[in-house]
TrEMBL record:
<protein>
    <submittedName>
        <fullName>ATP-binding cassette domain-containing protein</fullName>
    </submittedName>
</protein>
<keyword id="KW-0547">Nucleotide-binding</keyword>
<keyword id="KW-1133">Transmembrane helix</keyword>
<dbReference type="GO" id="GO:0005886">
    <property type="term" value="C:plasma membrane"/>
</dbReference>
<keyword id="KW-0472">Membrane</keyword>
<dbReference type="GO" id="GO:0090374">
    <property type="term" value="P:oligopeptide export from mitochondrion"/>
</dbReference>
<keyword id="KW-0067">ATP-binding</keyword>
<dbReference type="GO" id="GO:0005524">
    <property type="term" value="F:ATP binding"/>
</dbReference>
<dbReference type="GO" id="GO:0015421">
    <property type="term" value="F:ABC-type oligopeptide transporter activity"/>
</dbReference>
<keyword id="KW-0812">Transmembrane</keyword>
<feature type="domain" description="ABC transporter">
    <location>
        <begin position="57"/>
        <end position="293"/>
    </location>
</feature>
<dbReference type="GO" id="GO:0016887">
    <property type="term" value="F:ATP hydrolysis activity"/>
</dbReference>
<keyword id="KW-1003">Cell membrane</keyword>
Amino acid sequence: AALVASSIGALSEVMGDTQRAAGAAERLLELLAAKSPVQSASHPAALPPRTAQGAALILDDVAFHYPSRPDTLSLTHFSLSINPGETIAIVGPSGAGKTTLFQLLMRFYDPQQGTIKLDGVDIKSLSLHTLRNAIGIVPQDTVIFSANAMDNIRYGRVGASDDEVIAAAKMAAADEFIQRLPNGYQSFLGERGVRLSGGQRQRIAIARALLKNPPLLLLDEATSALDAESERVVQGALEAAMVGRTTLVIAHRLATVQRADRIIVLEHGHIVETGTHASLVAQGGLYASLAALQFNTDSQPSIR
Ligand code: ATP
């Protein structure tokens, strides 16, 4: 039994990586959740009614290490209070814990210490379904399935109607290019179907996330270069997506950090600086040196 338990643990860690790379593994993870080390609450609490601004999020003295690495704290003494409607940009060197933060918010893992509250409710007392329904996630790289465009978006909320899918696509600035595909929403995508550009894939991901109308949006900004036109359209879609939601974005672009209400600078699993772009540059600390390296000009993608 111990062996089985630990291999399931290892599997769930592999799945953690899959989520990171693909985002779309979410549904699969939900299926696996029954066997995962993260337990859905047996008598789940409900979230309060959704507010017009988005969700409030409070992390209180969170500490976390991955099960396979008990000696490495990926987050430590992590406390952060985010108001409904705020946009928080998260920056930090590789390995600082940015992705780990998202994994804990989605409850792919539970922290060993501290609490995470969504609209005042400990996320551990929510069902996994309720929690993950409240969170829209736009990963760096989007998996496009061998299915038509309609179903590729519907994957964000499997029960959604065609009209709901189209409404989400419109908000995500995806409707127009989908309409122009040979068979519109029925066009087959993926390996043996229509190959989408990077910007088109991102808009599919945004539409998927919006289908849930989530009060909390987690964005992992793409590091790959888009042409200027796609860049502009994707940015526009993201801005529309952020209205009425609380947003956490792992930021790789200057335009994003400049727009954020607050920038959180992570290093070695905890927050070392917070402020606006201008205040942090003036401070001349870690952010200033990261910004000098990462962000070239307004419209250019970062070099990583
Ligand atoms: P990057 O910018 O490179 O994506 P990050 O800031 O997102 O980095 P994390 O991926 O959160 O950093 O990693 C934080 C720490 O946790 C690192 O020490 C990393 O090696 C470790 N880590 C990340 N994922 C796992 C995993 N699945 N199992 C074990 N350790 C992991």
